[in-house]
Design brief:
Elements lengths: L1 H40 L3 H14 L5 H28 L10 H36 L1
Length: 138
């Protein structure tokens, strides 16, 4: 009977370790994808402000509403990126260590998934507003 319990404990331990390893791999992959999206947007931060300034210079009474609206979208994309970076660094600071408990690890993975979804949406929106602003300036 004792060997049966030992076997059951060993099986549970191995399955927990496998689950944790899978979660760690998923976490690292998702973290990398989040940083790749960040790295697409970050160099565009200057473009957002440059385009906003160009829209201001080109604004006149016939296009003021459209130009002001687009300037607002450019500013929002910039502000949202700054907010995302702040939130991400709060949730996953540089010294962040992956949890060793599978349940806690899953919670962290869920939080990272939300951050990834947010940065991907922000990437799409930022690139779109840049294209739209550039089109207005043509």
């Amino acid at each position: 009977m004792k060997s049966l319990w030992t076997l059951v404990l060993l099986v549970l331990l191995v399955s927990c370790n496998e689950e944790l390893q899978e979660q760690k791999v998923a976490f690292e992959n998702l973290k990398q994808e989040s940083m790749e999206a960040h790295d697409v947007i970050m160099p565009k931060m200057g473009d957002l402000m440059d385009l906003s300034n160009q829209l201001s210079a080109k604004m006149d009474s016939t296009n003021a509403d459209v130009m002001m609206s687009k300037k607002g979208e450019l500013q929002k994309a910039h502000d949202d990126m700054m907010t995302w970076m702040h939130d991400y660094s709060e949730k996953f600071p540089y010294e962040f260590q992956l949890p060793t408990d599978p349940e806690v690890m899953q919670q962290q993975l869920n939080i990272l998934q939300e951050e990834y979804d947010e940065i991907e949406e922000l990437k799409v929106r930022t690139l779109k507003v840049i294209d739209e602003a550039e089109d207005l300036l043509k």
